[in-house]
Design goal:
The complex is a heterodimer of chains A (788) and B (179). The longest helix of chain A is centred in the C-terminal third of the chain and has 24 residues. In chain A, helix 11 crosses helix 12, helix 11 runs parallel beside helix 19 and helix 18 packs across helix 19. With 788 residues, chain A is α+β, with helices and mostly antiparallel strands. Chain A has 20 helices and 31 strands. Chain A has four domains: 151 residues, Aldehyde oxidase/xanthine dehydrogenase, molybdopterin binding domain (Aldehyde Oxidoreductase, domain 4); 196 residues, Aldehyde Oxidoreductase, domain 3 (Alpha-Beta Complex), CATH 3.90.1170; 168 residues, Aldehyde oxidase/xanthine dehydrogenase, molybdopterin binding domain (Aldehyde Oxidoreductase, domain 4); 213 residues, Aldehyde oxidase/xanthine dehydrogenase, molybdopterin binding domain (Aldehyde Oxidoreductase, domain 4, 2-Layer Sandwich). Chain B is α+β, with helices and mostly antiparallel strands. Chain B has two domains: 78 residues, Beta-grasp domain (Ubiquitin-like (UB roll)); 84 residues, Orthogonal Bundle (DNA polymerase, domain 1), CATH 1.10.150.120. Chain B has seven helices and five strands. In chain B, strands 2-1-5-3-4 form a five-stranded mixed beta sheet, with helices on one face. In chain B, a hairpin with a 2-residue loop joins strand 1 and strand 2. Chain B is elongated. Classes of the chains: A alpha+beta (788), B alpha+beta (179). At the A-B interface, helix 1, helix 18 and strand 30 of A face helix 2, helix 4, helix 5, helix 6 and helix 7 of B.
Amino acid sequence: MKPAYIPRVQRSYVGQYRARIDGIEKASGRAKYAADLTVKCRVPGLLYAKVLRSPYPHARIRGLDVSQAARLPEVVDVLTFEDPDVACLKPTNAGWTDGVDTLSYERMMWRRFRDRRVLGSHARWVGDEVGAVVAAESEEIAEAALRLIKVDWELLPFVLDPVDAMAPGAPILHPELGDTNVLPEDTVGGADVFVDKGDVAQALADADVVLTATTTYHNATQNSLDNWSCLIEWNEDNFTVWSNSYEAHQTRMHLSEMLDVPLGNIRVVSPYVGGQFGRGDTGDQPFFLFTALLAKRTGRPVWFRHSRRESFHDGRQHICYEGALGAKRDGTITALSFNSVGNVGAYADHSMFAIKFAPVEATEVAFAHIPNVRFEGRGVYTNKMPACMMRGVGNSQLNLILGRLVDGLAEAMNVDPLDIACKNFGHQWEELPDKSLVTVLQTGAARISWTEKRHQPGEGPIYGGVKRRGVGFSFHPGWHAEWQELRRGEVHVTMTVNADCSVTLDAPTVETGTGSNTCNVLGCAEALSFLGVTSGDIHWISTVDTDASPQDCVQTDSSVSFLQSEAMAAASKEVKGKLLERVAPLLDATPPELDIDGGFVYRKDGVGGRWSVKQLLREASLDPITVAVSRRPLATRTGVPFIATFAEVEVNTDTGQVLVLRLVVVNDCGTVMYASGAEAQQIGGQCIALGESLTEEIIYDERTGFPLNFNWIDYQIPTMADMPEIDPVLLEVWRGEGEYGACGLGEGTVTCTPCAVLNAIYNAIGVRIDSIPVKPETVLKALGKIGS
Amino acid sequence: MALSVTTQETVVRPPGLEFLINGQIHRLDTGSSVAPTTTLASLLREHFGLTGVKIPCDQGACGACTVIMDGKAVLSCMVLAVEAAGHEILTIEGLPSDDCVVKAFAEQSEPGYGTALQCGLCTPGFVMTARALLDRVPSPTISEIKEALSGNICRCGCYAGIAQAVRHASEIVPKASAS
């Protein structure tokens, strides 16, 4: 039996270890995802859409001949970039997504670079959707039709490396935006030098110790198992979209603004989604638009689904960070300087969020006590798959250099890196050392036996003649606390107490697997515990339907779990008020004279007995009591808690293989909303984090620009056999505002692991490896056993 | 006379294909839209509506389409529909509602291991692979569990919870089923 976390406050429901509310539905295969609602036997008139994709990294379509494709039997429609329905569409980008609050075309993010066309004629990476889309009676016919389209390609020179792409004479990917591949300054990320506090140059010149390092984070993709799809059907002047996107109301806004259809005429239905990890948080959304156009033109339901290969459509930014750190002799860090170059691929999407926005947040909440901090960063277009949002966006890449510098400084000064971390990092609202960071690091260190296992780099015992072991860690500020969710707008929840005291809970959010649905039910049971209801009495509505639900709370920042529970805590007072109004006449009392506890109504003056709520409700009107609330996140700035990963590795110095023996994942999250779900996020995040550390990367043929591993055979995702023992540790040290004062947890669980693994490898072999993924050849090169 | 009618019927009506799925015979007549290239996974989903079978990769890499064919776990995206004709197929829809593997996956919440599922898309495949393992090895060791389930991908990364669920299920597998 492993230890359970220790809650700061004992509550009846919130914080429980328990099964997920959708456990049986999902384990029995009965849970329905978008692709399950749209199988041919359920939607008889279904047509299948397939889009033309560029076989070249950089090319223009001079002309298309679709006549042969259109003549193929069972091809129903072919739509091309020259069609007025398509040509009139505005340029677009990823700004529709991750607005968190619903955004219009004018207010969307990244207005400076609307760099995507719907079915354009300019292809910028192998796989780019261009030129034409086909609707046919079967997927096979649609694919066959695509092969019959004669494309007159004008091949253009391409560039894959961002440094090459910045050089004079490099092919320009987006001439419509300017004469450079460097993304322009924008309203969200700011200038190239986007943080400049104090005087970093002077501070580095004055420092007793100066340390520099360069780290490279490679590209990985989200690899959600539920291939992104939509089914669209028109009925007169309105249409319905069934989709596995992670946001419903924003999808509706996207379609409305791009197709000029009133919001009320569009219905978006989102049932269970098989994993998100940032997958749908991208500009790669024109498929909604051309599917809607095809459905309108053909008068039939049309289905578009990415194949596995096509599901490699966005991922993590490949970012190279140069970092410099200056410190005093006592270990006080006086200067931090970072210069980054990010490969954003063919489209900007949300890359500047990763390159600029995430570091700005980290500066505010973790580098507040360091007097001189400078960040300079550039995002550069290249002819690769676009990068966008992926779990841990921007912070994963930043952590690789941050944890490396802290480890390096500790070594240079011959002190423990845990002490360097605690001495220097924290937010401006608290004195150093930061209580959260100290507790997180002390707990993690104890769990991995840091003192016993840590040794001088490369000087530990040798196992089996060739194997060396080491331990390392990295830490990062957590995200997101409630005050960081202000841009989200309002969080909506509707609670309906039925006449039998059962509760229907509409806490709209698309269930992508995060477990926020179970948090919701626990939060609701906690808030309504005065009614004597249990979590089993609460029915959670699992499908978001824009015709029926209030605006969904978008599954970003890992914060839905507590934001909706905070809203329910507020709503419960209103439920109590309405209920007392309803039953007071039956008791010859006024509502202020009454109260409710444990499912019983009583007079506050103690006169009379206790009356069962259930019974009173049945005697009063049988109308359900419905309370709909919307609540803006609280703005009180409370800082954030810290997170860390500790890793123990074993490196085979003969084969170069790195085996991660153990990971300890520590999250201070203010309040644990649902312990089993939180641990599942901590453990589960390591599948992505370890994959990125050791095996996952997209490999391109440099000669042709062709990606070589857009499949799950050559792109290696860790399986059960690859995963080490993982120790999830939940802490409640920091506290935010509100009833629970919780903080996002899931997204950050991937952030610290790659750097912890690299630091552990250094501890094991005494040679630095500063880029991921660490493949056996990387280790052998570092050891000088094979040529570089 | 009767004989000649039978003969005539045989000639007029080509044999088609018969599938034994979850204990029931399903017939596909010749001329249905099932192509020779149709996979068992696609047949089960698109024709028979058995959507517990998932097809994330369609290339035998993720295990989400796992069904049990003649007692063995197979990747139904790697089996042609015509190959499966005449064989006994069990999909997750065919498991009894109180199946101990399903229950163990649904209920896993033992501290330190997380849940055995999150988004749930890989879960039916894991359940079927685990079901086939326990039918063969009623009390597997942890390394046998890892070996058997290493062909399935859970991107939510619930591997620790899944292993725990299989252990819990193995403890409650009726020992009689081993014989």
